[in-house]
Design goal:
Number of strands: 10
Radius of gyration: 20 Å
Number of helices: 6
Shape: globular
Distance between the termini: 61 Å
Strand content: 25-35%
Structural class: alpha+beta
């Protein structure tokens, strides 16, 4: 495929993106759900509340984005291999660790009615509905369960099967409206959620078996008298505020 054809395809995709934005721009201000009906071809999705999408039929919904990331995976990998503590190759180890962690994360997400929408190399992106404040608990439970599965099951299996050291994960949760649409080209469309929550969750998924949330989710969180969760401010390294969730004794 030459440069002219590639440029044309990209420009066509951007033309379509501009058309989509024109259809939904006002909805970000109004807070309504976008449903613009054109073509009847439906594509299945894992996005909660939207089992199928039609081409040129974007929607706007409120979501909690959930990003799980293996911490320092490259450094961790090189150190362990150089120490020759395991009889598996570097490529094998990458496959086994990624498989185990992502599988554990998917289980936790699906157990709590979330949808895994993308795999991110050494992590995953999931979405949870945010139709009411109580929906926060499902995302939080999925995060807690992901860490529990890692610490009590995944690390144990990896050590026993391959003599691999313990892994750590970071989980970021963030809340905002998101544009849900199909991206790609003919015969290769992918459902995508595009929103501030996705960007923010990916930026704060950097703790070590900890759960970080953005300031919008902290404000959205149900306020319960006598609640046992605390939100500790993180160092201001980004263009938004973030917090670590801790449980009071």
């Amino acid at each position: 495929m030459d440069d002219i054809v590639i440029r044309k395809k990209i420009e066509e995709a951007l033309d379509n993106a501009e058309s989509i934005w024109t259809q939904v721009e006002d909805l970000f201000e109004a807070g309504d759900v976008a449903r613009v009906f054109n073509k009847a071809v439906e594509y299945p999705t894992k996005i909660p509340g939207i089992p199928t999408l039609e081409l040129n039929k974007p929607e706007v919904r409120e979501y909690i984005a959930f990003v799980l990331d293996i911490r320092n995976s490259t450094k961790h990998l090189l150190v362990a291999i150089s120490n020759k503590t395991s009889n598996v190759s570097l490529l094998q180890r990458t496959l086994y660790e990624t498989t185990a962690v992502i599988t554990g994360g998917i289980i936790a997400v699906e157990n709590n009615e979330g949808g895994v929408t993308e795999l991110l190399g050494d992590g995953l992106l999931a979405l949870f509905k945010a139709e009411k404040k109580e929906d926060v608990y499902k995302a939080h439970n999925a995060a807690k369960q992901s860490i529990f599965i890692l610490e009590t099951i995944v690390n144990d299996i990896l050590q026993k099967r391959y003599n691999l050291p313990k892994l750590e994960i970071g989980i970021g949760l963030a809340y905002s409206k998101a544009l849900v649409t199909l991206l790609g080209s003919e015969n290769n469309y992918h459902p995508k959620a595009i929103g501030e929550c996705v960007y923010r969750a990916s930026k704060i998924a950097k703790g070590r078996n900890e759960i970080y949330i953005d300031d919008k989710l902290q404000l959205f969180w149900p306020k319960i008298k006598g609640g046992k969760l605390k939100f500790l401010p993180l160092p201001k390294e980004l263009d938004f505020e973030a917090f670590k969730i801790v449980k009071e004794n």
